[in-house]
Design brief:
The protein has 87 residues and is mainly alpha-helical. The mean pLDDT is 88. Helices cover 76% and strands 0% of the residues. Helix 2 crosses helix 3.
């Protein structure tokens, strides 16, 4: 690669110690939104205010999911370690 190509694709990366928090942020963002879509549909159906209801649910679900993932992730990692054989 040339310097011009390298500079064009240069991006800022966070240190590895931030990985659990970034993982939790991405996971919470996606899962809370998907669950808000599904639960809102199950409760109220697909009405004219469906997306407004989804976003109202998401405002509560996203912070809760982020906190829960931070708490539960270490437990899940340990359970997987106990369950799966290493190489």
């Amino acid at each position: 690669m040339t310097d011009a190509t390298t500079k064009k694709h240069l991006r800022i990366r966070l240190p590895m110690r931030a990985a659990p928090y970034i993982f939790a942020l991405y996971m919470a963002t996606m899962m809370a939104f998907l669950m808000s879509l599904v639960i809102t549909f199950a409760e109220f159906g697909l009405g004219p205010h469906y997306m407004a209801n989804v976003m109202n649910a998401y405002q509560v679900a996203m912070p809760a999911a982020f906190f829960c993932i931070l708490v539960v992730r270490p437990v899940v990692v340990r359970l997987v370690g106990w369950t799966v054989h290493g190489q």
